[in-house]
Design brief:
The protein is of the alpha/beta class. It has 2 domains: 7-105 and 251-272, 3-Layer(aba) Sandwich (Rossmann fold), CATH 3.40.50.10860; 108-242, Rossmann fold, CATH 3.40.50. It is 38% helix and 19% strand. Strands 2-1-3-5-6-4 form a 6-stranded mixed sheet, with helices on both faces. It has a 6-stranded parallel sheet with strand order 9-8-7-10-11-12, sandwiched between helices. The longest helix is centred in the C-terminal third of the chain and has 16 residues, at 245-260. The mean pLDDT is 92.
Length: 273
């Protein structure tokens, strides 16, 4: 019987220095006894297509894609899963037969797994989604599938409006401007931008935060339980806070499943980290 070949995976993004993905996939590899390497690649903003092509033309078997390249990865894919078609955003690529590249999006299923784990997922909830880029796009079908009412806020209003119009057929969703934010009493706030980690500042009204709101930041800070966004929420009295490490582990597990046909034990990885 032929032994499984040693496989090569990478994550492509910018910034990428903070990523825990190589550590997580190393734990998956040990847990499942599937030998593979996993590296992080920082890609200049105009070089994604060249870098990903070079990777798959040489050693690459599969790749993860993070900000800001998820929509470019969608266009790069030869074949798309239903999840990727719904979101028009790709975070997982796999080389398949005839050297074709399959694009998938595991963000939504990974996010729902983590919301359930945390007890943040409520039925008929009002959810404020801050951001209208590839990260937000990847979550919307999953969030809307739970009959939640979603409000999208983005500093560029037209981008939020365009995203809301695109996904309106899936459920209750509408764009909001800054002046409308104060009137929203959301049960869950999801932060899906990189503004808190850039020189630019994302200004939000303090009235968004109340004692019963759950605040989830898709970002995380390496070796830290918190992020600038979560610090802001905590100072204003929010009690239920979570960073994106849980989602990172969960979506990574479903990427691993796509590549290797086995789902790692997610709870064991939570315990190890």
């Amino acid at each position: 019987m032929e032994l499984d070949k040693f496989k090569h995976f990478s994550v492509f993004g910018n910034p990428i220095e903070h990523t825990l993905s190589p550590k997580i996939h190393s734990l998956f590899s040990k847990q499942t006894n599937i030998p593979c390497s996993y590296t992080a690649v920082k890609v200049p903003l105009n070089e994604f297509s060249n870098r990903i092509n070079s990777f798959f033309n040489t050693i690459g078997d599969g790749a993860n894609v993070t900000l800001p390249f998820k929509e470019e990865a969608y266009c790069f894919s030869d074949i798309l899963t239903n999840r990727a078609k719904l979101t028009k955003s790709v975070n997982t690529l796999k080389k398949v037969k005839d050297e074709k590249i399959l694009g998938d999006n595991t963000d939504g299923i990974g996010f729902l797994y983590d919301l359930n784990r945390l007890g943040f997922l409520k039925k008929n909830n009002k959810i404020l989604l801050i951001g209208a880029g590839g990260a937000a796009r990847g979550l919307l079908p999953s969030i809307l599938s739970k009959n939640n009412e979603v409000f999208i806020y983005n500093r560029t209003y037209e981008r939020a409006k365009k995203l809301a119009e695109e996904f309106r057929y899936l459920g209750k969703i509408q764009e909001v401007g800054y002046k409308d934010l104060s009137a929203i009493k959301a049960g869950l706030i999801i932060h899906a931008t990189s503004y808190f980690f850039s020189k630019e500042k994302l200004i939000l009204p303090s009235s968004l935060i109340h004692q019963n709101v759950s605040c989830y930041d898709l970002s995380y800070v390496k070796n830290s339980q918190t992020t600038p966004f979560l610090n802001w929420c905590k100072k204003l009295g929010a009690m239920n806070l979570a960073n994106g490490i849980g989602m990172l582990i969960s979506q990574a597990a479903y990427s691993f499943l796509l590549w290797n046909n086995i789902l790692p034990d997610i709870e064991k990885i939570f315990a190890e980290l």
